[in-house]
Every structure is written in C-alpha cells, then in structure tokens.
Amino acid sequence: MCYIFIILVVVIFKSNAQIKGAVLDSTTNTPLNYVLVYFKNTSKIGTYTNNDGTFILPSPERKDTLVVSMLGYTSKYIPINQGIESQNSTILLQELPIQLSVLNVIPQKKQDFRIGNNSRFSRMGYNAAFSSWYYELATYFAKPKFTEDLYIQSLSIFMYNREVFGKGLVRVKLYGAGAENIISKELINRTFQIEVERGRLKGKWYEVNFNELSVPPIAIPKDGFFVSVEFLPTSSSKQHGNSKGVHIGFGKKDRRYVLENLGQGWRPALVQQIMPGYSPMIQVKLSN
Predict the structure, then answer these.
(1) Fewer CB atoms inside 10 Å of the end CB: C or N, the chain?
(2) What pLDDT does residue 6 have?
(3) Phi, psi of 233 (to 5 degrees)
(4) Residue 54 has what pLDDT?
(5) pTM for this structure?
(6) Residues 245, 231 contacting (CB under 8 angstroms)
(7) Residue 77 pLDDT > 80
C-alpha cells in the first residue's frame, strides 16, 4: 500500500504543474493581450493572454510544443517536456510590417457598392456556445463580376450582446479563398477588434472602416474572400472561455457558405445544419 500511495502523489503533482508566462512586444516591451497560447498537438488546451500579457496553462501530459501566436507578429514555438512547470517566463514577439496578399494600383474613378446580407432584422443569432476556449466563424464572399480590380473599403456586422457583467469582444480577420472555397492565407496580416455593447438584445450594426484606420487598399482575390469573426474572452467569461454572450445576427436574404474553427482546423459550420437557409448578417462595401 505504501508504494501505491507514493505513485498517486507523483501523478497528482504532475497534473497540477503549470506553464506561466507573459507575452511582450519585443520593441516596446509593452504587454500584448489576446495573444493565442496553446499546445501544438493538444488543441483543446489553450488560452488567451490577459490585459497584462500574462497567461497560465496546465502542463501537457506528454512532450509538446507551446505555440504563441497573434496575427501581425512573428509566432514563437517553445518545446515543453511532460509535466514540467515553468514560472514567469517572458516571451517576446516581434511586430511585422503590414503585408497584403495582393497589391494593385487603384484607379482615379471610384464606384462604390455593397454585397452581403442586408436583412433589416436578425431572425436568429449564433454564438460560441459549442466551443471550449477558441471559436472563429468565417463567411465566404465570391468576387463580383466586374471588369476592374475591386477593393474592400469597410465591412459591417450585425451583433448583439447578452453578457451579464460587461462588454463582449470579437476580432475580425480577412482571408483569401482557395480551391473549393477553403480558407487560404490572410488578405492582410492585421486584425480589427470590435467591442459589442451590453444589453442590446435587438442588436445593431458594427462597422470596421479600413479607410479611417489608414489601412492600405485590400484587393479581392479572383477566388473570393472570407470575413472571419473570432470570439474573444472577457472579464465575465469563464476561465479559458470566450464571449459566449455575443451573438452574430442571421438572416435569410443572402445565402452564403460558412466555416468554423474550434482550434482544430476549419470545417463546415454546424450553424448551417441547425439553421438551413440562414447566413450571417455581414455587409461588405467595395469599390473599384
């Protein structure tokens, strides 16, 4: 019995081991919040950095690699041994210059128009309730038939927030589309954060205006693009959770292909099986 007791103590000790650290900008030494921190071979275990750049994760049960990643910065890959405990490690990420997947020259004459779901009211809403710590929902937009190159000027997303204690946060990304409407590389290596107001059960449109943000012209690839919404954690979210109170409105006017990522790669979104005929209420303003 004595030997069994000792083995149990060792197992409990290893299971309680933690990886702790802080992620900073390598140039300014300022903390970076909402950085993704997860194990490469154990995608169900992950978290985001807090406002002070810190994070805590349970040590892996087997040898693994810790991935520290945020769009717009170089990623770090750190080997972690089984059951090891790391305290207060500082991880420096280097910011990258703004990069576009397609570069073109915009002509002088401009013609503006919108594509996407223009429903006046949200008939249904969808959130990150089915996820553990990470959830991203991406909506496909084909390139309109136009003789000239097209550029994204702004986008609007209809959302409402049922968070009980505070704000809801999402992060918007733009991806190019590959063969058979799969997600390829990012159109721009930057993300755009939106704070969703609490208590607006009827919802409202939230706009990201790239001109006002001094973003270079974002050209649409010939195979189209995806608008992605990533649900970020808030003070009212559970540990390692995300903004489950934030809902994206869905309408029937504009049927589109939707993918989701729960930290294990992209797949067809479950929402389109639950709500066939409905698509996210997202509008994109384009110009030539």
Answers:
(1) N
(2) 29
(3) -75, 155
(4) 94
(5) 0.83
(6) no
(7) yes
Distance CA 132, CA 134 (A): 6
| Kind of pairing between the strands at 86-93 and 18-25 | parallel
Q: What is the pLDDT of residue 87?
A: 62
Only one residue has tokens 């969703």, namely 196
Confirm if 123 and 259 have CB atoms less than 8 A apart: no
Q: Tell me which residue has tokens 């590389």.
A: 185
Judged against a pLDDT cut of 70, whether residue 63 lies above it is answered with yes
| Segment 98-120 mean pLDDT | 70
For residue 8, give every residue at least 6 positions away whose Cβ sits within 8 Å of its Cβ, in sequence order, or none: none
Closest C-alpha among 159, 152, 197, 194 to residue 174? 152
CA 68 to chain CA centroid, nearest Å: 14
